[in-house]
Amino acid sequence: MASTQESQITQQKFEQGMTTQQYIDQIKVNKDPFMAIYDTLQVPADSAALFNGLTQPLNLAVFTADWCGDAVSTTPAILRLAESTDKIEVKIFNRDDELALTDSYLPEHRAGTVPVFVVLDSSMKEIAKFIETALSMVPTLDAMEETIAQETAGESEANARSAGRGKRTAFRVAHAKEWGNIILNEFSQVVDSGLALAPE
Question: Structure pTM?
Fold first, then answer.
């Protein structure tokens, strides 16, 4: 979703966020799969070219939660991209500590959605936002859920829930490279569209 509007995030607030390494150091849930995905990913050439070719660097505010399944796939992909170029300054916030601020970037019917990535120019004006994951991933994620539901059918509710969590995480790690490319290509398109709308 592209936009050019005043952001809720001031420069001062942005600077309070964590670096990628600080975020990784404090992950409590899903750290191993997060790192497996982060370490597996390679930034697609088109995405690298877009960001490396920018005349002005961008700021990227990330609102994420380590317990969230979509964050396990999307957050390491976008952080890997940010770390691959000197044209993105990234700061990360734990969504659960910044619920009102995160929700200010979401339509009302999607309040509570995580993760949220807000791209800002050097004046902290909003260029674009990327919510949850790539839209083109939705059928793939639905198919994953259907497969897991079939595999855990007949289990007690508690066992099915626990087994389902493990299977989802394993599935995300197994498809890290393929899904990461999809996520980064769509993220790049969203940012490119936002930049096209932004005043010079």
Answer: 0.92
